[in-house]
Amino acid sequence: MDASGEKYSILLPTYNEKENLPIITYLICQYLNESDINYEIIIIDDGSPDGTLEVAKQLQKIYGSDKIVLRPREKKLGLGTAYIHGIKHATGTFIIIMDADLSHHPKAIPQFIRKQQETGCDIVTGTRYAGDGGVYGWDFKRKLISRGANFLTQILLRPGVSDLTGSFRLYRKKVLERLVQSCVSKGYVFQMEMMVRARQFGYTIDEVPISFVDRVYGESKLGGSEVIGFAKGLLYLFATT
Ligand code: UDP
Ligand code: MG
After folding, report:
1. N or C: which end of the chain has fewer CB within 10 A?
2. Residues 183-196 pLDDT 10s
3. Band of residue 2 on the pLDDT scale cut at 50, 70, 90
4. Atom of ligand 1 nearest to the CA of 219
């Protein structure tokens, strides 16, 4: 399929994902090899105490160091800086960001790539809130928080993107570099700010519907403080953009 000759760097931030990492790695390789895509997987482990890094080292032996690149960090420094760290080491012209907990299915990656090639856009974002996208396995509270955050942002900032809090996306590397430099927020609001800033800078964004399935193994890191952080970030962007 992929005659473009482009290389794609997939950033996988991990914190306590030892059960999920072998499966997600297998699936990524499976789907991308099938579509003849040139790629590397960059695993950024945040000093997981559960031995995720040891698992990653085993995977590197199996799949080869050209496919699996390890860029671990000493301790849990959070998602935002994990992306910055990963981008620095990425050798692709495009970067795909996804969670390692199997909530994001690797089968969507070739769809993102195809979409980008069709439209020539700068960003492709997975969306749970358009077309046949959806969310599975979340309780009512978490659905309400996610819907509420998206709804409020749509009203206040009119970004023209249907899923602002998702984190399964493809970016042109140069675009992503500029966006992370200009984004001020931390935590979940960061995903939303990226889309708002992208619009501000005039980058083009396309969407691909995805199914988000809640993690089976391990624990989510969303807490009450993240909700407050999101509300603050949203108001800040409303006031300044
Ligand atoms: N993660 C990370 N460092 C952190 C917190 C999370 O690398 O400090 C990773 C985590 O392993 C997963 C992704 O970021 O691959 C998303 O985290 P999580 O699934 O906990 O968030 P949720 O899906 O609940 O929003
Ligand atoms: Mg998750």
Report:
1. N
2. 888 777 889 999 99
3. low
4. 20
Q: 127: helix, coil or strand?
A: strand
For residue range 85-128, list pLDDT tens digits in order. Answer: 999 999 999 999 999 999 999 999 999 999 999 999 999 999 99
CATH code for the domain in which residue 23 is found: 3.90.550.10
Q: Would the CB of 45 count as within 6 Å of ligand 1? A: no
C-beta 25 within 6 A of ligand 1 = no
**Domain residue limits at 42:** 7-240
Counting the structural domains of the chain, the total is 1
Say which residues have a Cβ less than 8 Å from residue 30's Cβ, sequence separation at least 6: 106
Whether 2 is covered by a domain: the verdict is no
Q: How far apart are CA 25 and CA 58, in angstroms?
A: 11
The rounded Å distance from CA 190 to ligand 1 centre is: 13
